[in-house]
Structure formats: structure tokens, C-alpha cells
Write a structure and sequence with these properties.
By secondary structure, this protein is an alpha/beta fold. The chain has a domain at 3-91 and 183-282: TIM Barrel. 44% of the residues lie in helices and 15% in strands. Strands 1, 2, 3, 4, 5, 6, 7 and 8 form an eight-stranded mixed beta sheet that branches. Helix 9 (226-239) links the parallel strand 7 (216-220) and strand 8 (242-245). Helix 1 packs parallel to helix 2, helix 4 crosses helix 5 (133-142) and helix 5 packs across helix 6. The longest helix is centred in the middle third of the chain and has 27 residues, at 85-111. One fe (iii) ion binds at residues 6, 8, 63, 248. The site of adenosine monophosphate has 10 residues, from helix 5 and helix 6.
């Protein structure tokens, strides 16, 4: 039983269509998959159709852009109804913030001597409901300014680099409440990832569980060191919440170590998540 519970498609900044992702998941020997595009559920109907044809167990998902004390936090929603009005409105607000910051980033990059046209970036986000920095990175690569997405982030686009422009994200406590009200299961993605991201302290995670209804943490993720994974498993057990695992796959070869199935969710945790998704749906 191998479950990879955090992956992206062309509906956000992944490179595979939902059909191709499902095909690759089967080829990688996965039994279960969650498709979790950034701030949109638009790819799920196609993912569901492809998965049911392929005998792959698919969990609906998305990865919501949230914020805590000025730091970016990604919140995974499993199950639930992305069309629920309050959640749908908030996802719309986040996507508008994504759209609006792209021209500002293009201006910034122009000032830095890397001119780009909006159309060039838009072309890489052609199928996407959520545009993001990886699409800007693709345009920088196409112009020959950088070799790949990783170099684009390392030199220009990462949060502390000169081409970065911030965007709207939902306060984390509100994001958890919206996910729960939509009948979803709320799991903090890559809670302790490196690479400039904030590490949510244990005490904060404990409070999010006790007072705000957080359901779990992503423990096994390519950004986490082995000791961090173990500590997150222990913390989740202590708090009585889910500990999940995933590759955070965005497309073959784009980021070494993030291949499908690179990290997976333990069968007992997967069964627990499935039961929770069903209970919230039926309750
Ligand atoms: P945005 O959604 O516009 O804030 O861009 C952040 C997204 O860019 C993350 O969710 C990752 O999918 C992606 N990303 C972050 N760092 C890198 C990197 N070094 N190489 C490729 N993609 C990255
Ligand atoms: Zn992404
Ligand atoms: Fe993320
Ligand atoms: Fe992700």
C-alpha cells in the first residue's frame, strides 16, 4: 500500500495533466494519490475520471496559501467541498492576488535587467487556474536568463531574492476554519521545510490542533531531514493527529528528489485519513 498525498498538475504549477499524473502514479507503483493543486480544485474532475479508469484510489485535495505572523504556510485540504461558498470565495481572493502580483514581478525583473512580457509568462500558465512564480521561472528559462526553475528561484524569485513580490494569503487560523466548514481535513504541508520557509514551532502546532481544529501535519516530505521527519511523527502521535507523507511532485525531472512516491503515507495513517474524510462527508 503506497499513498502519495501531495502532488501538482498543470492546473497550478505542475507540468503534468491530471491524466498524465495518474498514469505516472500507476507506473510508479502507487495505490493511492491525492492531487493538491495550489488554491484550486479545478483539476479534480479530470483526475477522478482518470483514476477510476486506472484503479487508483484518488483523494480530492488542494493546497491553500495561508500565512501566520508574516510567514507563508501551506495548508492541505483533503475531501471537503471546494465549492462551499465561503471557501470558494477565499480561494478566488487568493487567485486574484496571484494574478495581480505577476505584472509587479515582471516590472521588478525588468528593472533588474531581465525583461519579460506578460504574454510570455501567461503562455506557461495556459492551462493553470493558479499562476505562480514557477511560471515566471519558465519564462526566464525560455529567455535564456537561467538554466532551470531552481536557478530562477535561487537567483531571482525566492522570498528573499530581488525579483520577489509578495501576494495575498489567508490567515492560517481562518484557513483551517474554512477547510473544516467545507467538510475537509486540514493538514499543514511541509511543516518544517528548509529553503527559507518558516518552521512552525511545536507549541504553535499544538495550539492549532487544540484550539483551531488542525487535523494533521505532513511529516515525510522531501524538504524534511530524517530527524525532522521523526520528530514530526512523534509530535503528531503526541497530539493525536495525522502524520502524512508525500513527494510534492510537480513534474518529472524538475526538482531532483521530488519524484512520485519519493515520500509516502503509512498505511495506517492513510486508513485514518480516509475514515476522517468519509466521516466529515457523511456527518
Ligand atoms: P508561488 O505559489 O507563486 O508563491 O510560488 C511558490 C511555489 O514555487 C512553491 O509552491 C513551489 O511549488 C515552487 N518552488 C519554490 N521553490 C522552488 C524551487 N527552488 N524550484 C522550483 N520550484 C520552486
Ligand atoms: Zn507548487
Ligand atoms: Fe507547498
Ligand atoms: Fe505543493
Amino acid at each position: 500500500m503506497r499513498a502519495d498525498l501531495h502532488t501538482h498538475t498543470v492546473f497550478s504549477d505542475g507540468l503534468d495533466t491530471p491524466e498524465r499524473l495518474v498514469e505516472r502514479a500507476v507506473a510508479a507503483g502507487l495505490d493511492a494519490l491525492a492531487v493538491t493543486d495550489h488554491d484550486t480544485a479545478d483539476g479534480l474532475p479530470r483526475a477522478r475520471a482518470a483514476a477510476s479508469g486506472a484503479g487508483l484510489d484518488l483523494i480530492d485535495g488542494l493546497e491553500l496559501s495561508a500565512r501566520l505572523e508574516g510567514h507563508s504556510v501551506h495548508l492541505l485540504m483533503y475531501g471537503g467541498d471546494a465549492e462551499e461558498p465561503a471557501l470558494a470565495a477565499e480561494l478566488g481572493a487568493i487567485r486574484r492576488g496571484r494574478d495581480e502580483r505577476i505584472p509587479a514581478m515582471i516590472d521588478r525583473l525588468g528593472q533588474l535587467g531581465l525583461p519579460l512580457d506578460l504574454e510570455e509568462v501567461a503562455a506557461f500558465a495556459d492551462d493553470a487556474s493558479s499562476i505562480g512564480r514557477p511560471h515566471v521561472a519558465d519564462a526566464l528559462v525560455a529567455r535564456g536568463y537561467v538554466a532551470d526553475r531552481s536557478e530562477a528561484f535561487a537567483r531571482w524569485l525566492a522570498d528573499d531574492k530581488p525579483g520577489f513580490v509578495d501576494r495575498y494569503a489567508t490567515p492560517l487560523v481562518d484557513a483551517i476554519a474554512l477547510v473544516r466548514a467545507a467538510g475537509g481535513v486540514a493538514v499543514v504541508a511541509h511543516a518544517w521545510s528548509r529553503g527559507g520557509r518558516h518552521r512552525l514551532p511545536e507549541r504553535v502546532l499544538a495550539e492549532l490542533v487544540a484550539e483551531h481544529g488542525l487535523d494533521g501535519v505532513e511529516a515525510d516530505h522531501p524538504d524534511h531531514l530524517p530527524a525532522e521527519r521523526a520528530a514530526l511523527h512523534a509530535l503528531a502521535a503526541r497530539l493525536g493527529v495525522l502524520a502524512t507523507g508525500s513527494s510534492d511532485y510537480h513534474g518529472a525531472g524538475k526538482k531532483a528528489g521530488y519524484h512520485l512516491g519519493a515520500c509516502t503515507t503509512a498505511p495506517e495513517q492513510y486508513a485514518r485519513l480516509r475514515a476522517l474524510v468519509a466521516a466529515r462527508r457523511d456527518g
